[in-house]
Amino acid sequence: MHSADFVFPAAGVKLPPGGLVLQTSDAAQRELESLLEFYLASGLDCFLEEDAVDRFALSAELARAQAEARASAPARPGAQPAPFQSGGPAQQSRPQAPASPTREPSAANAPVSGGAFADAVVPDTEAIHAARDAARTAQTLDELKSCLQAFNGCNLRLTAKNLVFADGNPNARVMIIGEAPGRDEDLQGKPFVGRSGQLLDKMLGAVGLDRSSVYIANVVPWRPPGNRTPTPQETEICRPFIARQIELAAPDVLVFLGAASAKTLLDVQDGIRRMRGRWMTYDCNGRKIPSLATYHPAYLLRSPIEKRLSWRDFLSLRQKLSEDANS
């Protein structure tokens, strides 16, 4: 392959006829081209960040924030953490509490700070119990968002810039759920707005949907530092909020992007290759919601060959919506 014929698919930019402008020998040039071919074959066709990310610095920053929070946390003698109850959202449901007092609406992209809870790093089981209590008091989606903005039981909020609550139409028939926001989502305070979101928009458009006809959220509404995977404890702390969000939005169909969100809410252990393409059921306090898992757009950007399978999944979604509309 000549350098003049080499195309970087993600950017769509051809190298100049003279090749890369580098003072290298022909052998070194061939090695560079071979390396680029290897990257493309491996699915590495783009930069994830504009600048290099110092993971050690991010970890140190988080450790300092946690240490400061522990030092400033008031002592709670005699407090007993509530036992964690396993199971799906239906098993965790409790009788509805009276509606909480109306809170002042907050800006959509306001940084998460302050609230009814003290800034502290609390034991995971206690945080899960507090999350369930807080989520249960919300009677509307706006109240649920306010509860999340006031909730200090998840340490991810210490490093996130914004709460990423939802986007789209809360009255839509379809609710799409991912795992956690990334860098672009954290900056804008909306889910799926980066390259993954652009691909998701194209996938929706291919079956006649757009953001005005779907409701989009994540299991974890704060970006983990360095785009790392949320820990099981962080996911469990956030699960009561996404379960309540589903209950309040009351969609006809759920679509899970990636295995993580499906495993969390459907209580299944299969990988995404076994889950995708088949309809399952999410139990929302006795209401059975048809649910479909498919590949996460970020994975499709790394493995374009799998787009054909996601296309089948979205065709299945379109057929399901048509059947329900005609029934």
Automatic annotation (TrEMBL):
Domain Uracil-DNA glycosylase-like: 165-315
Region (Disordered): 69-114
Entry keyword Disulfide bond: no
Listed GO MF terms: 4 iron, 4 sulfur cluster binding; metal ion binding; uracil DNA N-glycosylase activity
Xref: SUPFAM superfamilies: Uracil-DNA glycosylase-like (SSF52141)
Keywords assigned by UniProt, alphabetized: 4Fe-4S, DNA damage, DNA repair, Hydrolase, Iron, Iron-sulfur, Metal-binding
InterPro entries assigned: UDG_Type-4/5, Ura-DNA_glyco_family4, Uracil-DNA_glycosylase-like, Uracil-DNA_glycosylase-like_sf
Reactions mediated catalytically: Hydrolyzes single-stranded DNA or mismatched double-stranded DNA and polynucleotides, releasing free uracil
SMART domains from the UniProt entry: UDG, UreE_C
GO biological process, one term: DNA repair
Chain intervals with Low complexity compositional bias: 69-83
Family: Belongs to the uracil-DNA glycosylase (UDG) superfamily. Type 4 (UDGa) family.
NCBIfam families assigned to the protein according to its UniProt record, in alphabetical order: UDG_fam4
Protein name per Swiss-Prot or TrEMBL: Type-4 uracil-DNA glycosylase
Species of the source: Roseibium polysiphoniae
